[in-house]
Specification:
Elements lengths: L1 E2 L3 E6 L2 E6 L6 E3 L6 E3 L4 E4 L4 E5 L4 E5 L20 H10 L9 H10 L6 H33 L7 H16 L2 H12 L3 H25 L4 H7 L5 H40 L2 H11 L3 H30 L4
Antiparallel strand pairs: 1-2, 2-3, 3-4, 5-6, 6-7, 7-8
Helix pairs in contact: 3-4, 3-6, 3-8, 4-6, 5-6, 5-8, 6-8, 7-8, 8-9, 8-10, 9-10
């Protein structure tokens, strides 16, 4: 394609199209070929897999398609772009400095991290925020739910008002969906990971509190009764008579919730709670950058698979059984 201030010429195989640009809008000279689509303020040349050209009165936009993701590592502004993998590796390991005072390995990492098309640095930073949100929210929820569960269990704390009051508190905390909590805290704290962590924390306090208290209420009372008969105090009774029975359930459920919240943190991120979810939603709204959307979805799947494997390994190590 060639163009000037007044006209543009597009060559497509044996076809040719000339477009005048001097009248304030693009005008095709002669009969347009079948690969040229004419609109009121734009002319689009469909070049098949090779890409497309959009010509307007004030701009010309060329989109070229490649097999694979040719600028996934280095974008077109990088000194490493357009070279073969062997050439790039040679430059990084032992080549002359492409930028004075900066080693090639450092320049290569900087070009990759700040890739304008794929935005690796921003994507990975947001992904790390999602993981931290899930971990922090689950950890805080477990720390708060653990002591409250002992007060909510009827067989541990024989106070009906306190038991029922805490159980209704757990019901309230978990009945409000995590997405609703995220909307509330986004309005309170502003968009960002703090709102996401708080949403997960509130939801997990209710969920884990209910799970922990039900686990405590279903223990075999013979073990704590036997330890009590030896004259042990209340703390020792809970430590040696109750905890060995409920600890596997608590650990297993907490690890599962951590794994589940890693996925949930992606969803609440879309409403402004930070993390990869917000960036994914922004990419989808443009409706023109689906390769980046696919890239982020792959990263999310990889993180979920990784945390599932970590969760299974921890359960096997701590509990002695693999699930």
């Amino acid at each position: 394609m060639t163009f000037t201030k007044t006209d543009a010429t597009i060559h497509n195989g044996g076809g040719l199209a000339k477009i005048a640009l001097s009248s304030g809008k693009p005008v095709v000279m002669g009969d347009p070929p079948n690969w040229l689509r004419v609109y009121e303020d734009e002319v689009v040349a469909d070049l098949g897999f090779a890409g497309e050209i959009r010509v307007a009165a004030d701009r010309v936009k060329v989109r070229k398609r490649f097999l694979g993701w040719p600028n996934f590592i280095f974008d077109t502004d990088s000194a490493f772009f357009g070279k073969s993998a062997v050439e790039d590796i040679g430059l990084i390991i032992a080549g002359p400095d492409l930028k004075s005072g900066t080693p090639n390995w450092h320049l290569a990492f900087d070009d990759f991290w700040n890739n304008a098309q794929w935005q690796h640095g921003d994507v990975w930073t947001k992904l790390a925020q999602t993981v931290v949100m899930a971990f922090l929210g689950t950890l805080l929820g477990a720390l708060v739910a653990f002591p409250l569960a002992f007060l909510a269990a009827r067989n541990i704390t024989p106070n009906g008002y306190l038991n029922q009051g805490l159980k209704r508190f757990f019901d309230f905390m978990r009945s409000v969906d995590m997405l609703i909590w995220a909307l509330f805290f986004t309005r309170a704290f502003g968009p960002g990971p703090l709102a996401g962590s708080a949403a997960i924390f509130f939801t997990e306090t209710g969920t884990l509190g209910k799970i922990y208290s039900e686990g405590l209420e279903n223990i075999d009372d013979k073990a704590p009764e036997g330890i009590t008969s030896t004259g042990a105090n209340a703390i020792l009774v809970q430590r040696y008579g109750v905890m060995p029975q409920v600890l596997p359930v608590m650990l297993s459920q907490t690890l599962y919730q951590w794994e589940s919240n890693t996925r949930g943190a992606t969803i609440i991120g879309a409403v402004g709670a930070g993390g990869i979810g917000l960036k994914l939603w922004e990419a989808m709204r443009t409706n023109s950058n689906w390769a980046n959307v696919f890239y982020m979805v792959l990263l999310i799947l990889l993180v979920v698979f990784t945390f599932d494997a970590i969760s299974n390994a921890l359960r096997s190590r701590l509990i002695g059984t693999r699930t």
